Amino acid sequence: MVEGDKTRWIIWKIVVPLWKATLGRFIFVKYSPHGEVEAATMRFIRERTTIPVPRVWGVLTFQGLPYIFMSRLPGRDLWNPDIWQSLPESVNERILSQLRDYVGQLRELEPPSEPPLICSVLGGPVLDHRLSTTGPYGPYRDEAQFNSQRRQGYTVEQYAAYRNFPSEILSAVRRAHTIRHSIVFTHNDLHPGNILVEGDRVTGIVDWECAGWFPAHWEYVKALFLIHDPKDPWLKDVPKFIPAFEFEADVDINYIGWSRDWMGVVLEPDFNENVGFPVAESLI
């Protein structure tokens, strides 16, 4: 057995089972390429809302890779549609009511800059594969620059020509990208797999690496986009806890699609410095 294989064998056969049987019952360790930002986000949310998020104990780097040490939350996630369908309707409604309250709390948080930027909780780039598949991008000074990123830097007319859109779709994209929304705090990955429940109680909302300040419609767009099965019963419940923006979601999901960096020009924002909001200093 070569040295690397021996190390992996020790980790998976001895260290991992021992961890799960002891401290792993209380502590969850997550490898996160953007660990400092995600940890800061969870601390930010814990301090300002009643949303059940893990308590962050610290971020450690091992062999160049960051790991977040956090409390392990009780409950099971809702990723399997059968779980959600198996619950009584009254339980579903109580869970949705809690989620609606939590999303509302996020959206009521005051942006730390005026005018508000589209950025992470630390004022830097945001992670979202519908903006860039190569990693965090931004921050964006406003929604117009954000929308330009969605079009890979093209104008609406250039993008429509590039995608061979007929005139009616060009009109829809132009209309969607001229609407101006308020900038609100957004989880940005709010799919059933990131929601933990126990009975009729939401016990955790996890995976905050993509969170930040985004246009008000973006939480709804992403929540729909993340469900790949059009028959998934979760789809009809999304508007029950996230404010619906049907027109914007239809245009973005059906006509803008993935931000495919390899398909065309990628916007290089001329406003990409990390602002470093004072509110973030105590979060790292």
Q: How many domain modules?
A: 1
Q: N-to-C terminal Cα separation, in Å?
A: 41 Å
How many whole angstroms does the radius of gyration measure? 20 Å
Number of DSSP helical runs: 10
Strand order of the largest sheet: 1-3-2
Instruction: Give average pLDDT, whole number.
Output: 86
Number of strands: 8
Major sheet summary line: 3 strands, antiparallel
SSE succession:
HEHEEEHHHHHEEEEHHH
Helix content: 25-40%
User: Which percent range describes the beta-strand content?
Assistant: 5-15%
Per CATH, what is the topology?
Answer: Aminoglycoside 3'-phosphotransferase, Chain: A, domain 2
- Assign the structural class, choosing from mainly alpha, mainly beta, alpha/beta, alpha+beta, or little secondary structure: alpha+beta
What is the CATH-assigned architecture? Alpha-Beta Complex
What CATH first level would be assigned? Alpha Beta
Low-confidence stretches: 259-284
InterPro entries: AGP_Transferase, Aminoglycoside_PTrfase, Kinase-like_dom_sf
Protein name: Aminoglycoside phosphotransferase domain-containing protein
Domain Aminoglycoside phosphotransferase: 34-234
Pfam families: APH (PF01636)
